[in-house]
Amino acid sequence: MKRTTARRTGAAVAGGLAFALALTACSGNDLGGGGDDGGDDGGGDAACEDYADYGTFDGEEVTILSSIREQEADQMEDTFVDFEECTGIDVVHNGIGEFETQVVVQAEGGNAPNLAIIPQPGLLARLVNDGYILEPSEQTVANAQEGWTEEWLNYGTVDGTFYAAPLMASVKSFVWYSPTAFAENGYEVPTTWDELIALSDQIVADHGGDGVVKPWCAGIESGGATGWPATDFIEDMVLREAGPDVYDQWVSHEIPFNDPQILAATERAGSILRNEDYVNGGIGDSRSIATTSFNDGGLPILEGNCFMYRMASFYEAQWPEGTDVSPEGDAFAFYLPGDDADSKPLLTAGEFVGAFDDNEATQAVQAFMASGEWANIRVTIGGVTSANNAVDPANASSDVLRLAIELLQDPDAVARFDGSDLMPSAVGAGSFWTGMTEWIDGAETQTVLDQIEASWPAS
Question: Which residues constitute the signal peptide according to the record (predicted)?
Fold first, then answer.
């Protein structure tokens, strides 16, 4: 997905980490494998021999641009502590809120970073086709192939050439709720779409009198990427309304954006997001969704003003410090049901590390970030998930994230990548976002879909 804020940060996970390293163990000058792909505790206790094959680069700096900010940025930077000490590379990360625009501006202006963490394959394709992203080193390719499935590697491939290894991944088909509030009200987690709607109606009947408490709360405001949470909702509905084959045809534009099946899926989403009886608990009417930050959208659950919030696994980070995120606690998540209990389509997202130059230090950092070792370090630090098969789900920092990793690694899952991230960036990171914002604000569904279809690039 789109990383325009700290959207996948960890919950209040270990603050400070103490790191002690023996620099004398570092050696070697060739790029190589990431060493042992087993779990790590986030830095500080790995011997430098684990990093020797990446080489030594005294005082060299490698810059990374991303949309990762706040706590998640701090956690990501912790993954490089041992690597920096042992290789001599200073990894400098800059997380910005207008990433999708600024990475293009910087590349066009000759001021590109060494590496960028790109959340949309569509944007990656644009940067590749414009000649900015270069092919990675052989070791980056080898590390990526060791842990990631062919499907995930294909997301980092443009016109048959591999350019960017996956970094992290998330499950989007989740609904956040309060197990405590459900228990107090006698509500059960729904396992089908009809049960989900019946539960929503029951909450209206039980709590709808004062006009404040609603079944659902929502927020799609996200700075320059406002609208992306609504696109996620639509994508989940396309998978449920029309199925994965139609989803693939829609994403690749084999059927038009305004196909009747997509209209039906959008209207299914609207049965929640534009239903004044259902939204926006503790915040306002349905139009308030457009001006409510996705970070804050689910917080009324803790105040008893709403009961459910559809948002990805990374939302765990947004709960205030001290929130009991557990199956019996203040907040937890359940799978967004399919039409029947056996149907479990899964919407996923991820991000990919692309290089703007082929400097050896840049290649060393890119290769490390492609490794199972880096993935285990990052997952252990907390707050994120990965589809890298080298990751041990036991390293995840919560039950929700363990569940997400297990779903991501399930070879039988009917999983599809975030559709807007796969579409041409003019649509997926442009007209789809803005169109959904207008739709939430009351625009007619068919008109919005027609406008997005008209915006699809001719070639």
Answer: 1-27
**Which residue segments constitute the domains of the chain, with CATH numbers given?**
23-170+349-410 (3.40.190.10), 174-344+424-455 (3.40.190.10)
As beta bridge partners, residue 141 has none
Q: How far is CA 436 from the centre of its chain?
A: 19
* pLDDT tens-digit series, residues 110-127: 999 999 999 999 999 999
Task: Identify the band that residue 317 occupies on the pLDDT scale cut at 50, 70 and 90.
Answer: confident
Kindly give the pairing relationship between strand 115-118 and strand 61-66. parallel
The CA-based angle 277-281-282, given to 5 degrees, is 140
Tell me the C-alpha to C-alpha distance, in Å, between residue 400 and each of 10, 128, 238, 295.
11, 35, 24, 18
Instruction: Tell me which residue has tokens 């799978």.
Output: 335
256/240 Cα distance (integer angstroms) = 18
Q: Which residues of 332-356 are buried (b: 16+ CB within 10 A; e: fewer)?
A: bbbbbbbeeeeebbbbbbbbbbbbb
* Cα 91 to the center of its chain, rounded Å: 23
What are the φ and ψ backbone dihedral angles of 128, each rounded to 5 degrees? -70, -50
Sign of the Cα torsion 61, 64, 69, 72 reads: negative
* pTM for this model (two decimals): 0.80
Contact 330, 177 (CB under 8 A): no
Residue with tokens 């796969």: 422
Tens digits of residue pLDDT in 289-311:
999 999 999 999 999 999 999 99
What are the beta bridge partners of residue 166? Answer: 352
Q: Which amino acid is at 223?
A: G
Contact 219, 295 (CB under 8 A): yes
Distance CA 307, CA 284 (A): 15
Q: Which residue has the tokens 């049965």?
A: 271
Give the C-alpha distances (Å, rounded to integers) separating 309 from 39, 50, 173, 260.
Answer: 32, 42, 11, 27
Cβ-proximal residues to 110 (8 Å cutoff; 6+ apart), any chain: none
